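Worked example 2:
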Amino acid sequence: MKGLVSLIRKSTPFSFTYICEKNGDSLSDKMDELACFAPGMLVLGSLGYGPGDREKMLTLVEEDTVGA
């Protein structure tokens, strides 16, 4: 979960939340069609954490799904 969270970025100037694609040691500012499953993965993964970390992940889910 923390690895997935490390790939989350915000675009400029509109502050859209997206997940980068990791290729070796480099990150690419694009996401493919399977990224639509990421919010669900974050919700399910958040269940394994305490309240503080869980809330952080659920906030990312809300940011990721706004306007989707």
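Strands lie at 8-10, 17-19, 21-23, 26-28. The longest strand covers residues 8-10.
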